[in-house]
Predict the 3D structure of the following.
Amino acid sequence: MTKAVNAGWKLDSDDKACYIEVNDEDDGQAEPGTIVASETDSKDDDAEQDWRQWSNLPDHILERIFSHLTIKERYYASLTCFGWYRAFYLPHVWSNFLVEDATLGRMKYNYYSGWQPVLDHSRLQCCLLSVGHLIRGLDFRPQVSFNNMFQFMSLISWAMEQNARATGCPREWVGCGSRICSLNYIFPCNMALSEDPESVKLFGTGGQLLAALKRLMLCLTAQSKSGALSKNN
């Protein structure tokens, strides 16, 4: 019957390989100056290490982190690990959807104005299809490009109108905008002269942009009424 022998090759000071056998009596003895870690210590270290990892953060902390990121930054953060991908769809992350000139847009060169942000319809559609049912508040802050705001309002209003149809809604648009309960819009076209306090105060809104805002508000009003009726029934 053969006996297993603990042995191995080791390099000496002259870089020559020498074969060394280890006796069974020396197996349990550690070399002087070495520290042997117990199993309990390793388990405690593993537990602490799990909580220190970014992928294992609690949901309420991930929600606060994602709420401070832009839409683009949230998307890239969701690609890091499964935990952060799941945090991308947490409710508090989309409690307020900020829409500015460059939101979901791409830069396009204009011969007269230079590079201008233009709304990317494919990005907008993908965004609404992914998180449109999670948005609880809309915050519009137009500055220069009113056309981007108009197109954003038109698409989300259309999606909400599709959900309100009696004949049914396309499957991919079901629930889009159904949780929106707040709307904030800042009118940007202030034409008043600040250096002349006695001048007539004029505030421009833009005809098509105002019509799109009115359409969106009607959709929100109809949605709130239908929600109240469903609760009463």
About this structure: Residues 105 and 187 are 21 Å apart (CA to CA). Residues 30-37 have pLDDT under 50 and may be disordered.
